Structure formats: structure tokens, C-alpha cells
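fwd from M.: "can u put these together and see what the complex looks like"

so here's what she sent:
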Amino acid sequence: MTVNRGVERELDMRTLTYWQAISEATVQCMQADERVLVVGEGVDDFRGTYGTTKEAFARFGPDRVVDVPNSENATAGLAVGAAVAGMRPLVVHTRADFMFLAMDALVNLAAKWRYMYGGDKGGAPVVMRGVVGRGWGQGATHSQSPHATFGHYAGLHVATPATPADAKGLLITALTSDTPTILIENRTLYPLTGEVPEEMTPVPFGVGRVARAGTDVTVVAASLMVHEAERAAEQLSAQGISVEVVDVRSIRPLDDTIICESVAKTGRLVVADTSWARYGFAAEVAAVVAERIPEALRSPVRRVTLPDCPAPVSWPLEEAFNPSATEIVKACLAVCDTTRSELPALETVTAGFQGPY
Amino acid sequence: MTSDRTRLIREMVRIRVVEEVLADYYRDEQEMRTAIHFSIGQEATAVGVLSATTPRDWVYAAHRTHAPYLAKGGDLRALVAELYGRQDGCSHGRGGSIHVIDQSVGFAGSGAILGEMISVAVGTGWAFARSGESRVALTFFGDGATEEGVFAESLNIAAVQRIPVVFVCENNLYSISSPLTARQPAGTSIRGRAEAAGVRAAAADGNDVFAVREAAEAALRHCRAGNGPYLLELATYRWREHVGPGWDHHHGYRSKQEIDSWIGRCPIQRAVAEVRAEEPGIDDLVRQWQAESQEEIHAAVAYAKELPFPDVAGLLDGAYLPVGR
């Protein structure tokens, strides 16, 4: 199938899964630029990081798809040192929680390299992918999505791709730019399918997309919550409530404009995130709207985020912990000030998943 | 004509004079608003090691930056301008004493977080090895940094990947005011830990610039031949306080007698004594170099103070590339 995106050439579209899109971006970037290397624990093994590094290893071998010791701290520093010397390392973590062990090199070095040496000595364009293992009892230390943590620091770019096309396009942008970049991928998204251009087509950072147009309430969402928001919008549509879903794609830079244009139109804002409320992505979106267009809000902002505790394991606790379309529906009803307080519960997009992770 | 050995002495004299004069300005003027860590007393490590490198070898320093920066050939005026926070400083006033750089001579950067540049040097060495060139990455750090997890991780990665990196540990016995004996168990050594990780290691008297130079040459040969990483443990001593221009024996964590005993082992005096037989005029040369360096550093300070500060309108510049690039 061919789609004309207007300004650009026609693109050859195929249906791929999210993980296939990541794999394709990786292989294409490695083909285009021999400085691109994949680095991570077990990136060369039979699983190939849920398939995302398998094709790259098959094509380029252990010289460019490099298994490293269990040393997240030094591996991040190694990636900085290699990037400064001209390489384009893509570091992969099968659980994003391990990125906390890489914080020094990412926050104190990669984010600051260009600035603290004066702006004209080059940067440390490390790219790091982190997979969020939310669900299936992954628990307190294997479920966290650290996008807001990294989003705090100037000097980094941080993306939360929700669709296969964006998973590919944002990774291509990351691997072809000179800015250190963090990509946070929700494991649950991996089997989802979507139209993906075959060409090596970058998706810019800081440009959100309207995933679904609507007029009554805006749901700004990141990553997996974009899909939950779309399902919530579908249900609310049957009730006569028109929801606009904004997928930010990247949280740093954040597309303030698309958020404010949507809220200016609908007058109501719900923010849906895969992480906690305090000091997080949802708080940032609310602050952007409060600072720029406070007069547009016809009702208070609602945040759909994780309860303020670590992730539990037991099935019913975990189901209660992870917000889904049902919570977004409730939040939309609340900001729309309808007499209904809720609608029938929806299954999450993760329903039907077979373990283990 | 000066021999290779007198050249090393000259470089140590220059660094000593530069730092002593900077310490005076720093204390008296209060115009260098930057956390400053002097290498006074430990010049032989930087000079001995880096005189053996080429500009295509890259070195990363820790927080004690001036000696390795100058020993690698870094521009003095750009360093001093940086200390004074000027736009023409080597990091345009964004880095200060801790974050200095001169890529033209292979001084690739420096960092304030203990141990982090060890892993960065491993990455640069890895990139060098991949390019097939015989370039080597080096990194300076103190005994304190070897207690960081990233040190152990970096040794392991460098060894298993046979990365051409020279780990230069300046063991000056103290981490701020905490003595090595309180931090690392008796019967262990830093080079021993490197060897246990599969990294070739050697120790040298870090106040003997000629011994350091020889050890560094062996380390660089080892790396260039594709034999993997090498650690040099160099015993030395910091005369002044950990951070700042002053002396610190009155704080009680170490005695004046201990400091004086190390001043008695001054790397410059020691080297001068060693070459006196072959260079009978060495004492006059040292006096001449001291005078030249005095003139050079005072001129660099005067130059820096004439320079404009960065324009505040450019505060954000460099956090990101300009849009569209």
C-alpha cells in the first residue's frame, strides 16, 4: 500500500509489528552508517531482545552487535566515550529499570557534554533503548517507565513511541542525530501492528500527532496509554462524547503547541501516562496548559497515572495498579461534568497476553 | 640544548609555577569562581605519562585537571580564561576548572564524578581499536575513584574486549580527608585489583618522573601492540588541600610532618638531583624556566581578565544543537 504524506514522496507501507519496526530501523541505520553499533546484555542471544536485535545480529555479527558484561554503569560510560570518538552506539536494556544503574553517564555526561565543554566541541550522541516490562507480575523493579526521569534533564531527547511507525521513525531520528536520546518502549506494545514505511523515514522529535480527532475533551497520552485513550474515546463516542487523543511521541522536546491547540478547542484536559503523577509527564503537560492557556480550561485537569506505590505482583493488585481505558473513561466523564460517573469496564489492550514475559 | 630528561623537568616546573601563581590569585582576588583542585606536588605523574603520548592519543582527566591538561599540551591562556569564566575559555565559561578540554592536543575532557571518565576512556579506546589505528585512550583518576563500582566494571570490560586504554591511578593516599587505610583493606592494592580483573598492571614511584615516563612507555607499547588495557599505579602526594588554594595540615586529618616529608620528596627537586651530573647547569636552567613560567602565567591572567564574560543572552547555547542541525 502506498500513502502520500503530502509534502514528501510516496512511501511504501507494510503492516509490521512494533518489534519488527524497531528491528527494521536498527538494520537500516546500521546499513546506512557503519558507525552504528548495538550494545547490550544478550543482544546477540537467541531471543535478540524480543526480536528487535536479532536481524541486526544475523546481518552484522558480533563485531557490531556486541554482547557486554552485566555492567550498566560502565557500558553507558563506554557508549559515551565511543560516541565522543565518532561512533553511534545504540545501548539496549531489556528492562528499563536497569537504566538507573546508567544514570551517571547519561545524566552527568551524555546530557551535559556539549554544553559543559562550551557548545562547540561536539556532543555524546548515545542512543539508549529501555523496555518497560509492565504486567505479568513483573513487580516493583521490572515494571517502571523512567521517561519522565530522563525527561527532566536538558541535553537529552526522550521518546515514548506508541505505534510501529513511530517506533521505527523515532529510532531512525535518534541514530542519525547528534543528540543523546532515550527511547522508552512498553513491552506490551511489541506485538501491536501498524502501517510502517519501508524506507528509512525519520520521525522528528517534538512533533506530536492527533491520534484521533474530537471536540469535547483532549486526552494527551504517551506510549501505551495512547492506545488505551483511543479505546476510551471509542466507548465515549457511543455516549455522545467526542474525545481528541494527542500522542506526544516524544516527551522531550514536548510539542506544547499541539497540546495547547487541542485544549484550546476542547476546553478539557485529561493526561494519561504509564508512570506516576508526581513530578511526571502528566504534571508537565498540565503545567504547560496552565501556564500558556489557563483561560481555555472549562474544568480542572485530570491525571490518569499509577497509584502512588511501587508496582505489586499479585494479579488483582496489579490490575488495580495499572490504569487502562476504563480509568481514562472515568476521567473524561468527570471533566465533562456529565451525570454519569462511569461506563462498563473495558479490557486492557494487554488482555490475552500469554506469559512469561 | 636540552635533553629529553630536562624537557620533563621544564614541563614540571612550568606546571608548578602556573598552579602556585593561580593559587595566589585564587585566594587573594576571589575572582576565579570555580571549584579548583591543584596538582601541586604531583606533577610527575601527568608529565611522565603524557610526555609519552602523541596528540592522537586521547586523555580524560578527573577533577584535578590542570596538570594533565598542560602536560598534554593544552592551551594555557584558554585554561586561565576558563578559570576566570570568560567566553574565550576552553569551555566558553560553561565548564570551569573541572570541565576543561583541548581537542587539538588530545585532551578529550575531564569530569567531576569519581570514576566516570574511566568508563568513558574505555569507550574511546574501544572506538580507536575498531578503527584499526594504534591510538590509545588514557584516563587519570585517584585512589578514591578505584572504590567506585565503575572502576571494577571498566577493568572487566576493557580486559574482556582487549581495549587499548591506560588507566593511570594517581594514588595520593587521601580521598579529600579520608585516608586510604580507612577505605581499602590492608594487604590489597589497586594494581592487584586490576591484575585480578585480567588487566596488566605496574606500579611506579609517582614522584620519579623518569620512572613514570618509562612505565608509561611500556604501557603504551602494550596497548599499541593490541594486548589490551594496562593500569599504572603511581604513588604520589597532594601538598595542598583537596579543593582550593590553601594548606590544610591544621585540619588534623594529616600532620605537617607528613606533608613536609613529601615536600622533601618533591618530584622536581628529585629529578633535578638526578640529572645534575649530566646537566651541570640544571639549577640555572630551572631558575630560568621558573622566571619564564612566572611571566607566562601572569601574562595569561592579565589577558584573561581583559576578556569579556559570556553574553547572558547565550545562556542556553549548547544545551542542544540549533534546531535544524
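replying to her w this: Residues 210 and 246 of chain A are 5 Å apart (CA to CA).
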